[in-house]
Sequence to fold (81 residues):
Amino acid sequence: MALLIRGFLCEAPSDSEANVALLNVGVETSKGSSVIKECYQMLSEQAWPKFSGFAEGFELFQGEKNVIVCDGMVGNAAESF
Fold:
C-alpha cells in the first residue's frame, strides 16, 4: 500500500514531495509489534523520496508527513476522527 500511495504522490500534480511514515506507539525503533518492526525495516530499505520512520497518532493531522501507513484495524480507528 505504501508503494502505491508513493507512486500516486510522485505522479500527482503537486508541489509537495511524498513524506512517508509508519504509524506506531512511539518513534523509537524498539517500540511496536513484530509486524510494525518488520514493516519499518522493509520501508527503510526502499528508495523513498523521503521516509521519516515512525509517526505517532498526534502527527496524523499536522501535515508534515503526508503518507502515514498503518494496518487495517488502526486505519479504521484513525479514519473515525
Summary: Helices lie at 2-11, 34-44, 72-78.
